[in-house]
Amino acid sequence: xxxxxxxxxxxxxxxxxxxxxxxxxxxxxxxxxxxxxxxxxxxxxxxxxxxxxxxxxxxxxxxxxxxxxxxxxxxxxxxxxxxxxxxxxxxxxxxxxxxxxxxxxxxxxxxxxxxxxxxxxxxxxxxxxxxxxxxxxxxxxxxxxxxxxxxxxxxxxxxxxxxxxxxxxxxxxxxxxxxxxxxxxxxxxxxxxxxxxxxxxxxxxxxxxxxxxxxxxxxxxxxxxxxxxxxxxxxxxxxxxxxxxxxxxxxxxxxxxxxxxxxxxxxxxxxxxxxxxxxxxxxxxxxxxxxxxxxxxxxxxxxxxxxxxxxxxxxxxxxxxxxxxxxxxxxxxxxxxxxxxxxxxxxxxxxxxxxxxxxxxxxxxxxxxxxxxxxxxxxxxxxxxxxxxxxxxxxxxxxxxxxxxxxxxxxxxxxxxxxxxxxxxxxxxxxxxxxxxxxxxxxxxxxxxxxxxxxxx
Length: 457
Ligand code: C2E
Ligand code: MG
Ligand code: MG
Known about the structure:
The chain is of the alpha/beta class. It is 50% helix and 20% strand. Helix 10 (293-304) runs parallel beside helix 12. The structure holds ligand C2E and magnesium ion (MG) (2 copies). One magnesium ion binds next to strand 13.
């Protein structure tokens, strides 16, 4: 016994060391292994330093799969991910299990952004193939963050922090995104976080308002409805466009509370309008992938007492593309409740005619980019003409967006466009100014009707 002890001691110490550097589930190295490899690489290149890359991959939607199929299915997926990554990483690279559903890489021969992105695309594709769970297959995507030494940091901690920042940005942007760290990206993220805080506070303090822009019947210029447009003026930042803060609220996961506030305010304002005027409200792309959107939207409107038949919801083609099945379901539920659906910014997104055939809409809004060139550019005029004709055939109403002058209005009328919206007819204004506009129109209408009555008497 005494003779065997000295022989087993070094072996078990090696084993202990190996264990300290290995992830027991997947058999890959762990973060200590990566740290060690990185230190070694920097030491090897001390005389002749060259850039290299650290990357982190996070599996998208792993937690729900783990919750649904159980932890042992989750473990099987993680082992298959590890196996695939090990088999496909470039020569000389290291892959380790970082934390739960995160894997990290050391890529000694990746020197610059484009190569890092290309590697990310390759790894993403490898991970997107189905995972075999015996009785079923599941699919996953992955998000990536890369940091290139020495631009993104000198030592292990700094590089990992930069890769995590890049990964965080990828996750914020949706599934399957790849980001390579840069100081501009870090700066952008810092600004976005400041804006996020200001916007969250503004929502809490009820400082985000809704304005209304008239939509007119082009045949007689009378107002037929209003589009609600979000407005926010921050005391430090000044006017912030909804084109910036709506996507930010989507990215940071609080679009629901923002949209609820806006829809409630818009619907309450619309209650005081004449019954024949409709309210058009924009749904955001994140809302079109959330199966609860139809129910929530209908409940908010019902709570205000506004007739659902007076409401239109605007959605874009691009927004519908992320998850067409869910989007279609939401659209059907909303329409079944009597809400009408308008396809916004038509012509700019991933326009597909088959979508017009397969989805059921009530209205198409031709994007301003075509309308603003209709009097100067022959091609734009033909496109607008074709859209109008197509919509007539499909029994869809048409609104031309962004009409800024009389000539555009005239041309659109001549092409048979039913409705229009734009600065020529009125800029978006607050609910009080909207009421005055309505009152003025009804005074004119009443006078016209009175005149007609005296003439026919
Ligand atoms: P959108 O839905 O296409 O809204 C039309 C945009 O064009 C509005 O910009 C409007 O002010 C602007 N506009 C209207 N007529 C003219 C014109 O004659 N000339 C020019 N140059 N512009 C015109 P706005 O208010 O900045 O909104 C930008 C986008 O932000 C909207 O595009 C919509 O996608 C989004 N948005 C605005 N409010 C909301 C909201 O409450 N919820 C959601 N989800 N998105 C919103
Ligand atoms: Mg719109
Ligand atoms: Mg639009």
